[in-house]
Every structure is written in structure tokens, then in C-alpha cells.
Design a protein that fits this description.
plasmid, mainly alpha, 52 residues
Amino acid sequence: MDRSTTPTLSELLEDPIVIAVMARDGISPDSVQQLFERLRRSRRVQEERLAA
């Protein structure tokens, strides 16, 4: 991971510490990606409403 840039979600989900914490908490990388996709869609809808 290049420390000079902000890591992507995929890079964060590959980090060993993040993997360990998620495993401890019973959270899968797939569920995190699904959550972020829902947030992106929700934000897009909200922006479209404001633009109308």
C-alpha cells in the first residue's frame, strides 16, 4: 500500500489488522463493500433530488 495516497476500500480490507478486527467482530469484507455500495447509491439519489 502506497502511504503517500489515501488507501482505497479494497486496500483497507486487505490490511491484516483490519482483517483481524473484522474477524473478531464477525464482519466480512463483502458486507463492508455492500454497505459502502448502498451508501454510494443513497448519496447519488440524494444528489439527484437536490439537482432537480
